[in-house]
Amino acid sequence: MTNAPKVDWAAYGGQAGTPNMNQRPTDSDAALVERVRAGQTDCFEELVRRYQGPLTRVARSRLGRVDWAEDVVQETFMAAYKSCGSYDPRYNFRTWLWTILLNQCRGHYQRRLRRARIEPAPAGADGVSLDEAVETGDTSPLGKLLAKERAATLESVLRQLSTVQADALRLRFFGGLKFHEIAATMQCSLNTAKSRVRCGLERMALLLEDAGAQDQSSGAARQEH
Amino acid sequence: MNCDQVFDVLTRGPFPTGTACDTPVEAHLRVCPECRRLADALRPALELFQEAISPEESRDLPGYWCSVGAERTQPLVSYAREMEPKRAKLRPMQPVGQSRGFSALSAWGLAAALALGVTLGSLVSTRWSLDGYSTVPPINDSHVVVRPDDDQPRFTPTERKLLAGMHTAACTRHQPSQAPRYTVGQQQVLGTADLDNLACCTECHNANSDSVSSYATVAVSQSCRICHKDQATLSFD
Asked: Does residue B102 lie in a domain region?
């Protein structure tokens, strides 16, 4: 299922679950990175804690598989950790991390494509699909079913958008990025970032409307039968 | 709060939040039909995103807590206008009556403006109407000139210049001083050559006709006055 080993961040100097007493939770990303560069490697744990959730959500939506998303997020943190020495503190750490994630997602997708051409996936190697991994506050079977359906609809609609529009939407809604951060991450202008979000949402609205109309017509056809 | 900030709020998290923070956004949506239309159109997509995120996950996501980001450097409306044709395809999800209300209002406004223009035109033309002549007012004496014995108001050279200056670009190609002076009789039929010399109105209207009656010329001139209504409302007392 997953090829990349799970990273134990305690091995980098931090102790999982026990916050470093020298590190205040309100420390900025830049301050934490500066400490990591100065040798306080346990500070990186706090950065992982801050960004793991949003990064995983975006990667999960981008790749369509939870296990792949976890791999990519780990690779992203590894790459960020290794590159901490070369990180220029004048730039925003947040957008730097998101740029790494998008690059990792692209690389992962291309690697998967190449691998799929060479060796077909073995039986039962489907991994955890996105639908199965839907987390919802509603624990009732109906609630879970509805959440699963909504997640499937969202992923289906996002796949019909252009890659840049879908990525901009994922960064905005799953990553919680501001428009200027989306622009920096996607290396485009602020106006382009806003336009991608807006046009993506408009296209989604049209696709959802079409899907709703199709559902209604198929429902009517079933009633006639 | 401006359109840019409202778009930021709408795409930042669930809205309305049910707090007092919603008031400025809602106030803007009430007065800005463009943002209201956009908010209604985007609502299904936004809801789908918000429903796809579990409450646990949404904790580490930003929301709208009365603070609007200071990230705007370019107004959203600048590219919103570029997107107008695309947005026109979207079916607005606001109540139908409201949408129709706006278009009906616009139509009524247009009709009222037209009616006002025609009324003012007819008032001025009535004031200047002559026996045996059309109701064409001597707005520009290069077109139609009245008989010298009529008690038609005479324009001074300054007034003529003023009138010429107020013409549209198409009309100012022929300067009043250079244009021939015509007297149009009631039943007179103008030939093509004469029409060619009629500087303004008939150059565009009935340009391909061999001959146009004075009535037609009058009608054309009157229709031109609807566009040139600023002139019609002028008074030279």
From this structure: no
Question: Interface pTM (ipTM) of the complex?
Answer: 0.71
pTM (global) more than 0.90: no
Cis peptide before B16 (omega within 30 of 0): yes
Residues 6+ apart with CB under 8 A from B206: B195, B212, B216, B217, B220
What CA–CA distances, in Å, run from A21 to A25, A201, B101, B150?
Answer: 10, 44, 63, 103
Please tell me which of the candidates A53, A173, A191 has its beta carbon nearest to residue B49: A173
Decide if B75 touches A, using CB distance below 8 A.
no
Q: Is the dihedral of CA A154, A158, A159, A161 positive or negative?
A: positive
Please name the amino acid found at residue B46: L
CA distance linking residue B5 with residue B73, whole number of Å: 11
The answer to whether residue B85 neighbours chain A at the CB level (below 8 Å) is no
Distance from the A162 Cα atom to the nearest Cα atom in chain B, whole angstroms = 16
Every domain of chain A and the residues it spans: 1-125, 138-225
Which residue from B46, B62, B76 is facing A194, i.e. has the nearest CB?
Answer: B76
- Please give the residue that has the higher pLDDT: either A110 or B193: A110
**Could you tell me if residue B237 is inside a domain?**
no
The identity of residue A47, as a single letter, is L
